[in-house]
Design brief:
With 65 residues, this protein is of the alpha+beta class. The protein is built from two helices and five strands, in the order H-E-E-E-E-E-H. It has helices at residues 2-13, 61-64; strands spanning 19-23, 28-32, 39-41, 47-48, 57-58. The strands form two sheets. The chain has a three-stranded antiparallel β-sheet with strand order 1-2-3, covered by helices on one side. A hairpin with a 4-residue loop joins strand 1 and strand 2 (28-32).
Length: 65
Amino acid sequence: MPEVETKVRTWLDSGTRLVWVVEPAIGRTFVYRPGGERQDLGPGDSLSGEDVLPGLTLPGRDGLS
């Protein structure tokens, strides 16, 4: 996943405010924000658009499969 993390860093450095990386093979979703720690979500967790896409909530992997 190092290549993906490099791309995520490039996007965040360019002004992107929220990045989701979905890894269905391992059942995890990683949420990245500028200046923040990576947040790891599991199959039962929902994704939120936060203040970038207000009102958007997506089900975790169980709902996306």
